[in-house]
Design brief:
heterodimer, A: mainly beta, 5-stranded antiparallel beta sheet, 0% helix, B: mainly beta, 7-stranded mixed beta sheet
Chain lengths: 112, 114
């Protein structure tokens, strides 16, 4: 069993839809939770970061962490064609080397 | 400020050939990482370094070697390439003093081993 599980999709939604992306994990030591966005043939870039449990909002994006259920989510409101990308969840226990464990990524397409 | 750069962008090798991938960062970051990305597998850590002159194995280190002779550079070597090493390779860096774990990624190197 992988430490981090993520539905690979692909997910296709119409413009303006609310998108929900999710990851589950098994390592209770994880305390830093991130979402990276990766456009086609580009490197990943950090989109959202959350420490421990709770919600964080940034514009149209909301990240949620439920440590009791070992479940994290990313919500995209009013989705735009420019949101079309692969979304990777990533987690860390905050060790000395700051290693991240990534999900397999969910490919999202927002149709105009 | 170029961030993280990778050389080359593309490469095709024959089985058994060797090559070195170069990663350079101009952000004075202490930590550097090499990942490979395969369809359905996400990013998997190959090797990493927490400072100049230090390296350590990640999740999938077999068949790869690394060196960090200068703080700004992290080299990934394939001594005898195999078709299973066909992948997209990403380098990343992270600054030690920040409490969270944002890693800055390069644009990637697409490697095909025939």
């Amino acid at each position: 069993q992988k430490e981090v599980e993520q539905d690979p999709g692909p997910l296709s939604v119409p413009e303006g839809a609310i998108v929900s992306l999710n990851c589950t994990y098994s390592n209770s030591a994880f305390q830093y939770f991130m979402w990276y966005r990766q456009y086609s043939r580009k490197g990943p870039e950090l989109l959202m970061y959350t420490y421990s449990s709770g919600n964080k909002e940034d514009g149209r994006f909301t990240a949620q962490v439920d440590k009791s259920s070992k479940y994290i989510s990313l919500f995209i409101r009013d989705s735009q064609p420019s949101d079309s990308a692969t979304y990777l969840c990533a987690m860390s226990s905050g060790g000395s080397a700051r290693q991240l464990t990534f999900g397999s990524g969910t490919q999202l397409t927002v149709l105009p | 400020n170029a961030g993280v750069t990778q050389t080359p962008k593309f490469r095709v090798l024959k089985t058994g050939q060797s090559m070195t991938l170069l990663c350079a960062q101009d952000m004075n970051h202490e930590y550097m990482y090499w990942y490979r990305q395969d369809p359905g597998m996400g990013l998997r850590l190959i090797h990493y370094s927490v400072g100049e002159g230090t390296t350590a194995k990640g999740e999938v280190p077999d068949g790869y070697n690394v060196s960090r002779l200068k703080k700004q550079n992290f080299l990934l070597g394939l001594e005898s390439a195999a078709p299973s090493q066909t992948s997209v390779y990403f380098c990343a860096s992270n600054i030690r003093t920040v409490s969270y774990n944002e890693q800055f990624f390069g644009p990637g190197t697409r490697l095909t081993v025939l």
